[in-house]
Amino acid sequence: MGGGEEEGASSWTSLCWGLSGRMAGYPYLTSAHLRGFDRYKYRAVDTSPLSIYVIQPAWDFMVSLCPQWVAPNLITITGWLFILSNFLLLSYYDWDVTATTGSGTSLVRSPIPRWVWFYCSVGHYLGYALDGIDGKQARRTKSSTPVGELFDHGLDSWAAILLPVCLASVFGRWHISASDDFWPCVSVLGAFYVSHWEKYVTGVMYLPWLYDIMQLACGFCYLATGIWGTGLWQYELLPGLLIQQLLVWVLELAFIGSFPMSLWNIYCHYSNRTDPHPRRLSLLQALLPWSAFVVMTMLFWVWHQFSLTDIVEKEPRIFYFVLGIVFSNISCRLIISQMSDQPCQLLNPLFLPLLLSLSLSFLYQHIELNILWTYFFISLTAHLHYGVSVVQQLCSHFNIYCFSLQKKPQ
């Protein structure tokens, strides 16, 4: 791309971000937050053999093909949009998660076109790859800032719910209802949250071993469904044990499997007296971030479990997407607390309208669907406003553009 095209692309992204900034602009971050971001240094540990010997070399090759004028955050949001496009495409063809439901165990062909599954596989792997090279592009172009890390992990927190919800269309409702997807979704969110809680406690990002395995497996599920059809997942591995059930159990164990490793990493961190940058929190401070996650889980569990109109079965995608929005907002605030070295919030502002919506859904069950959609728009608007405002505030503080490597005028 020539210089004129590069300048045009940068101007376009700057214009779009500037317009969004005018719609936001609320200073959510205090001066203490900003001073903490000034002191912040990224620290990470990756011990996964798969990552070290296979994935990272592949990312190194891919980033070498990327033009140096491309801003890392542009790579980040492009990857996230691929993941979002999978969700939107499957929502179009399978809104209520019933399109791939069949009977018996015979191989059936899904009414979802085969090309959709191939697109989802490619889109998933592209999103995964772009998420893996954005940080490398930042270091390559000497444009690493706390803004990039927050932007990356913030979008990752929102993408976390899209994985299990998209897989629900792969498995359909053969032996699992939409309500049964609740705990697998919460488990995947919990696995993401525990890694950032671990970073909040230690100041170090210990990259989880399961992350790459699950990403590769998810893309393969789309690909295999496109080749052999959704009936593939209904074959019995053992008497009474279907492939589908086994994979759902794996998702449910994602959180349980990641928690012991995080506790071990925390123990090793606190036992290391030679760390030049130790982070020491009291037990109460360390456990504080879990209050918001537990309250979120309890409120959504009550709604899904005691809904008088069986709201999850009627609108599974909206219900779980709203869960993902609230989770992403909680996660973003945790990440900001860690990066700025500030105390984590006890509760989340989105809980108040959530509690009100939950209460109204029991009082006015005939409009429960409208209540859910109303809360969806409230939480989506609030989360977008928060995210855009925070990134705009940090970009102003560091005197940079979000989607361009051009320098702001002094």
From TrEMBL:
Classification via InterPro entries: CDP-OH_P_trans, CDP-OH_PTrfase_TM_dom, CDP_ALCOHOL_P_TRANSF_CS, CHOPT
Output one GO BP term.
Answer: phosphatidylethanolamine biosynthetic process
Q: What is its main location?
A: membrane
- Subcellular localization: Membrane
What are the annotated GO cellular component locations? endoplasmic reticulum membrane; Golgi apparatus
The record's family statement is: Belongs to the CDP-alcohol phosphatidyltransferase class-I family.
The protein's name is: Ethanolaminephosphotransferase 1
Q: What is the lineage of its organism?
A: Eukaryota, Metazoa, Porifera, Demospongiae, Heteroscleromorpha
